[in-house]
Amino acid sequence: MPENKKLLLVDDEVDFRTIMSKFFSRRRIGFELAGGCMEALDWLSRDDFDVVIMDVSMPGLDGLECMAEMKKVKPDLEVIILTGHASINAGLIGMRKGAFDYCLKPVDFDELFEKIILAREKAAGKG
Fold first, then answer.
1. Where are the alpha helices (DSSP H) in 13-107?
2. What CATH number has the domain bearing residue 94?
3. Where in this chain does the record put each Response regulatory domain (predicted)?
4. Cα–Cα 20 to 30 A to 64, which of 30, 44, 75, 81?
């Protein structure tokens, strides 16, 4: 995996971003955090990311709308959708719209880590 590539986590919940920061740091995953879509689009315009993990339910543009905007800028970006609604419906819709995969909240960290690895492998194959 290219070392200059990073992961971007987009979630409006501060506590969740804090938990995920610890998760990424312990696994030595380079990452940045965004509290919403506009901040995520700003990050995407000035840094190189191979994977985005994005909550579906956010104020303003939701995760699926934000993913669509991100893919206009970087079509090959791999996105893992998070949904806290204990429903796979939003995840499946996201995958139909171009997401790599989805995870339900509360997040199973081992499952998410595996999906990050797979998404990075797919992104590396495109590069």
1. 14-26, 37-46, 63-73, 89-96
2. 3.40.50.2300
3. 6-120
4. 30
